[in-house]
Write a structure and sequence with these properties.
The protein is of the alpha/beta class. The chain contains 18 helices and 14 strands. It has helices at residues 16-27, 39-46, 57-66, 76-82, 103-115, 132-143, 164-169, 181-191, 203-234, 238-246, 267-281, 286-310, 336-345, 359-365, 375-379, 392-395, 399-405, 420-425, and strands at residues 8-12, 31-35, 70-73, 85-88, 120-124, 150-154, 174-177, 198-201, 317-321, 350-354, 369-371, 384-387, 410-413, 429-431. The strands form three sheets. It has a six-stranded parallel sheet, sandwiched between helices. A six-stranded parallel sheet has the order 11-10-9-12-13-14. Helix 18 links the parallel strand 13 and strand 14 (429-431). The longest helix has 32 residues, at 203-234. The model has no long low-confidence stretch (mean pLDDT 95). The protein binds uridine-5'-diphosphate-xylopyranose. Uridine-5'-diphosphate-xylopyranose (UDX) binds at residues 157-161, 214, 217, 221, 255-257, 259, 262-264, 266-267, 325-326.
């Protein structure tokens, strides 16, 4: 990685995206100030602690603060005055009707407009509906009373929680929606150290690339999940089907893992927002509605499989292994575990659960759950174990010990981490996703 030219950058919003992007931009040699209106959060960050769980991030923040490339502030005015490029990375939570709530983006754009004292590049990093860039432009124009020149750029992120640093540092592509040569050159300088393929296009195309990519990935997951149901009906093995499909270079092997459904803060929210955007511009995106339905059905299929093993669910005790929406994160947002646990509880099931890092977060969203200190505590006395997150440590469990501890040897594997043949040899009644 070769440093080309240092750019002064502000990142507004220190959630997952803002904090990872700001820190990585400092790591590749830029001067970065991260800004948030949550003073508690900024204080925590100044003390060298991070409010989220992201492997490698804390060390990287400390290193860049020490190198004096990274600082924190609560003042958008200060951040705007100090920087040439300003990334907007504030939240765009879903409103009740599924549309993205853009009021934070608007408020920040206003403040930037008021604080600007010369040319600035304002970059939308938050996931936003197409045309938001134009709204940001209009908003800044209205508050930019001294008519300082500026450009708006769309630079969508494709960071996965748990591997966000690697995704930032080694991206498959960097998408830049730009409207002027001046902004293009500055943004190329910002990303030059990454040496990544650049897709330089219009604001609108860049905005669409983000929504189209996330929707397509959700579609791929729902597709293989639908195939898993057919596999169950005809006695085929979805793992082999996915392998056979994925070796075709046009399809590719990624995001073809059948399981208990996708979750997280991005896929469900972005899919809903994209369906809304399409509706607004006059297209009924039925395909994506089906993707959502398959995902919901996939979660409930886990409840049905458990019922097939236990006959009646009422008054049974079930141990849950894994609560986070995927491994290596404590994020519980839209985790399939929530729907599945609530579904089981509504049938009268008592729930015990263990997750290596997500239990504190789970306590905020789940009720009446007994948490264990390890998988064995959760197995003890349970009528069935259900695995919902494929944490690597669950692959190395002492399964014979688990079998002894369970009151009945039942396992539903929602992520296909164990082998059916081996589980049967060990004496389990074992059900997984789309395998005979
Ligand atoms: C996703 C996108 O990958 C990223 O580009 C975007 O910026 C944000 O949303 P993230 O939500 O962190 O990232 O997680 P990801 O690793 O993509 O997984 C999303 C969900 O899909 C998880 O619940 C995961 O378990 C599930 N999944 C993923 C599957 O069920 N099967 C797969 O084959 C892949």
């Amino acid at each position: 990685m070769q440093k080309v030219k240092m750019v002064k950058i502000a990142v507004i919003g220190t959630g997952y995206v803002g904090l990872v992007s700001g820190t990585c931009l400092a790591e590749i040699g830029h001067q970065v100030v991260c800004c948030d209106n949550d003073s508690q959060k900024i204080m925590t960050l100044k003390e060298g602690k991070i409010p989220i769980y992201e492997p490698g991030l804390e060390e990287m923040i400390r290193h860049n603060v020490m190198m004096k490339r990274l600082s924190f502030t609560t003042s958008i005015e200060e951040a705007t005055k100090e920087s040439l490029v300003i990334f907007i990375a504030v939240g765009t939570p879903p409103k009740e009707n599924g549309e993205a709530d853009l009021s934070y983006v608007e408020a920040v754009s206003r403040e930037i407009g008021q604080a600007m004292d010369g040319y600035r590049v304002i970059v939308e990093k938050s996931t936003v509906p197409v045309k938001t860039g134009q709204w940001i432009k209009r908003t800044i124009e209205a508050d930019n009373i001294h008519s300082h020149p500026f450009d708006v750029v769309s630079n969508p992120e494709f960071l996965r929680e748990g591997s966000a640093i690697e995704d930032f540092m080694y991206p498959d592509r960097v998408v830049l929606g730009v409207e002027s040569e001046r902004a293009k050159q500055i943004m190329v300088e910002v990303y030059e150290p990454l040496n990544a393929p650049l897709v330089i296009t219009s604001l609108e195309s860049a905005e669409l690339i983000k929504h189209a990519s996330n929707s397509f990935l959700s579609l791929k997951i729902s597709f293989i999940n639908a195939i898993s149901r057919i596999c169950e009906l005809v006695g085929a093995d979805v793992e082999v089907v996915a392998k056979g499909m994925g070796l075709d270079k046009r399809i590719g092997p990624d995001f073809l893992r059948a399981g208990c459904g996708y979750g997280g803060f991005c896929f469900p929210k972005d899919l809903l927002a994209f369906i809304k955007i399409a509706e607004e511009v006059g297209y009924d995106f039925k395909l994506l509605k089906e993707v959502q339905e398959i995902n919901e059905a996939q979660k409930m299929a886990v409840v049905r499989k458990t019922e097939e093993l236990l006959w009646n669910l009422n008054n049974k005790t079930i141990g849950i292994l894994g609560l986070a929406f995927k491994p290596n994160t404590d994020d519980m947002r839209e985790a399939p575990s929530i729907t599945i646990i609530k579904g089981l509880q509504s049938e009268g099931v008592k729930i015990k659960a263990y997750d290596p890092v997500a239990m504190p977060r789970a306590k905020e969203v789940l009720e009446d759950v007994i948490y264990g200190n390890d998988p064995y505590e959760v197995a003890e006395g349970s009528d069935c174990l259900i695995l919902l997150t494929e944490w690597p440590q669950f692959k190395d469990l002492d399964l014979l010990k688990i079998k002894e501890l369970l009151s009945r040897p039942n396992i539903v594997d929602g992520r296909n981490i164990y082998q059916p043949e081996e589980m049967r040899k060990l004496g389990f009644n074992y059900k997984s996703i789309g395998r005979p």
